[in-house]
Design goal:
Elements: H1 3-7, H2 12-25, H3 31-43, E1 53-57, H4 63-71, E2 76-81, H5 84-90, E3 101-104, E4 117-123, H6 132-142, E5 143-154, H7 160-166, H8 181-191, E6 194-207, H9 210-219, H10 236-246, E7 256-268
Parallel strand pairs: 1-2, 1-4, 2-3, 4-5
Antiparallel strand pairs: 5-7, 6-7
Length: 293
Amino acid sequence: MSEGAAFAGLDGRALRRRAERASRAATGPGVLEARVGAEMLARLALLAFTPATVLDLGTGLGHGAQALKRRWPRATVAALDSSAGMLARARSQSGWLRGFHRLRGEALALPVRSGALDLVWSCLLLPQVTDLDAALAEVRRVLAPRGYFTFATLGPDTLRELRAALGETEAARRVHRFPDMHDVGDALARAGFAEPVMDVERLTFTYGSIEGLYADLRAAGATGALAARPRALTGRRRLAALAAAYEAFRDVDGRLPATVEVVYGQAWGPGVNPPKRGRRTETVIPIESLRRR
C-alpha cells in the first residue's frame, strides 16, 4: 500500500479549519508536542555539523523554530505553517536577537527553492498531510546536498483504546489510522532519501474522564478530519455508550489511558550513498552513524 494512499482520505479543508480554531484557543504547546519536541532536540546533539539554513515544517505556535534558533543562533531559521492564525501566534516566539522568518505555505508545495535547506525539522505535521509521498518528495526537493531531515509522526497504535471502544460503529470512522514505522521508511526510500533511521516510542496519557481526552484532541486541532467521516454530530446517547465502553480500560489508579505511538525518523538528502540492501531485508544502522562524516 502506498503511503500517499494511506493519507488520501483526509479532508484538507477540515484540517485547516481545525488548525485555525486551535490557534485561537491554544495557550502553549500541548503536552505531547512539548514531549516529542524535547526528544527531537536531544537527538540533534548527535549531529556533528552546523546548518546554515533550517526549516521548521508545520511550526504551529513557533516553539520548534524558537528552539532551533536558540540551538543555532547564526543560522537562518524559517517557520512554515498553512495556518495564518498559527503564524500570527508564532510571531511572539520570534525575538529581536533570535528572530526567525515566518512563511505561510502547504507541505505539498513548499514555497522554498530547490536545494536551499541544510536541515528540515517536522514535529507531528506528517499525520495531517493528505499525501505523505508528495510531502516527502517536497522535503527531498528543498534539501541541499547532504541535507538532513528529522521528524516525528504518529503510528497505528495511537488512540487504540478509543478505536477499540468505538468498535465497528460508524463513529469509528472519525478516528484517523496511521501507517506503521516500516511503511513510513518505505515512503522515505521512494522519495529518494538515504540512510533512513526509524524508531518508535509509546506514550500513555491518562484522564479522569473521556471528556478530558476529547478536550485535549479539540485543543490540538486533532478531531476527526476524514473526508468520508460521518457529518452528523454524535448524539448524547452515543457519547454515553462510548464513555461506558471506554470504562473497560480504566486502570488500577482510576484513570482512563490513551496510547500515543510516536514514530521518530531521520534521513539524509541527496549526496549520501546508502548501504546496499536486499529486496526484503532490513539494514540496522547504529545511532552513531547519524554523525555527519
